[in-house]
């Protein structure tokens, strides 16, 4: 098998009516998600919970498997977490870093991609400098040989950066461009490791960069997990035939489905917050505050220290608040060694079941 050298972007496209029909539906649903996300008063609630879910699903595509329980528990205990859980947390940190960078620079640059991959892989290897990278399938057979020459990789990544940030190169809807950017990045395969996860981070960051989302909270990886075989088949189909129609339709459908599921998750979280608000207002109004409710939903697992820090209250008061919330079945206490923490069980179940 010979190496595959992608052509520089832009690619000539002739899109059928079915693509435009799906694009309209997907754009509307993504816009709805953006609006629903704004209904949550403290956006950190979505960032802390939904980014972890995307991190878990994206890592699972690479056979990096962890449980929701271990992932959320690692928020308090970094000493006894598995390697898989550490890698999922690194993914969440990389996604968060990318989000901060594009908000800061108002661009999505090659240097950002390098920083994202560095956090994912915990090394500074950068773009591939040595030939020999070959991708194998589950049978151990060579399935794809990406560009081998370091100069080709740099040239193609420079071209990709320009295409991402300069819409005059090809006037397309951002959702269509996202599908082409994702294909191009995966075909270049610029890193020794972490290409798949970096590419999936780029998907949602590009949607934020183009202002289609305020936050990187779309679970596109959950769709790819369910249709993983099709994903790789379509990548190969483009490389062999140059036909993007099915690929674009596939990813638009992914955005459509996961937008709807993310909307449902956010609405469930909002309903649960409203329920907790009513319980405290009716049964213990002396401890109720909007800030307390938000802190109960920042993370499924809660320790008194987080309330002490965020609400600027004493440890004794924080402990009192948590015990009252446990009394009303908003939280449940759990012991880990000599430490006690509280679980927002219903929030945990929403995140566990959503995808």
From TrEMBL:
Gene3D superfamilies: Fido-like domain. InterPro entries: Fic/DOC_N (IPR025758), Fido (IPR003812), Fido-like_dom_sf (IPR036597), Fido_containing (IPR040198), SoFic-like (IPR026287), SoFic-like_C (IPR048770). Residues 108-253 form the Fido domain. The active site is at residue 189. ATP binds at residues 62, 189, 193-200, 231-232. Keywords: ATP-binding, Nucleotide-binding. GO terms for molecular function: ATP binding. It holds the Pfam family Fic_N. PANTHER family: FIDO DOMAIN-CONTAINING PROTEIN DDB_G0283145, PROTEIN ADENYLYLTRANSFERASE SOFIC. This is Addiction module protein. It comes from Helicobacter brantae.
């Amino acid at each position: 098998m010979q190496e595959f050298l992608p052509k520089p972007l832009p690619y000539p496209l002739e899109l059928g009516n079915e693509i435009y029909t799906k694009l309209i539906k997907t754009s509307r649903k993504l816009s709805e998600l953006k609006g629903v996300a704004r209904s949550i008063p403290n956006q950190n609630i979505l960032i802390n919970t939904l980014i972890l879910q995307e991190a878990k699903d994206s890592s699972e595509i690479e056979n990096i498997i962890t449980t929701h329980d271990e992932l959320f528990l690692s928020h308090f205990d970094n000493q006894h977490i598995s390697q898989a859980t550490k890698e999922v947390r690194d993914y969440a940190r990389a996604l968060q870093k990318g989000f901060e960078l594009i908000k800061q620079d108002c661009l999505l640059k090659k240097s950002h991609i390098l920083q994202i991959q560095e956090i994912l892989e915990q090394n500074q290897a950068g773009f591939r400098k040595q030939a020999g990278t070959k991708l194998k399938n589950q049978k151990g057979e060579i399935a794809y040989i990406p560009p081998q020459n370091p100069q080709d990789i740099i040239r193609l990544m420079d071209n990709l950066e320009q295409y991402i940030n300069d819409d005059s190169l090809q006037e397309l809807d951002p959702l269509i461009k996202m599908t082409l950017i994702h294909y191009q990045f995966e075909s270049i395969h610029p890193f020794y490791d972490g290409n798949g996860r970096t590419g999936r981070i780029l998907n949602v960051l590009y949607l934020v960069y183009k202002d289609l989302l305020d936050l990187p909270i779309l679970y596109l990886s959950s769709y790819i997990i369910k249709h993983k075989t099709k994903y790789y088949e379509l990548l190969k189909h483009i490389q062999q035939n140059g036909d993007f129609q099915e690929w674009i339709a596939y990813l638009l459908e992914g955005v459509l489905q996961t937008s709807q599921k993310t909307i449902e998750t956010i609405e469930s979280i909002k309903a649960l917050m409203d329920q907790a608000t009513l319980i405290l207002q009716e049964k213990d109004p002396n401890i109720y505050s909007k800030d307390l409710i938000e802190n109960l939903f920042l993370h499924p697992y809660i320790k008194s220290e987080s309330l002490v820090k965020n609400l600027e209250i004493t440890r004794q008061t924080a402990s009192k608040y948590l015990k009252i919330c446990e009394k009303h079945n908003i939280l449940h206490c759990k012991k880990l060694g000599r430490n006690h923490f509280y679980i927002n069980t219903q929030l945990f179940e929403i995140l566990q079941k959503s995808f």
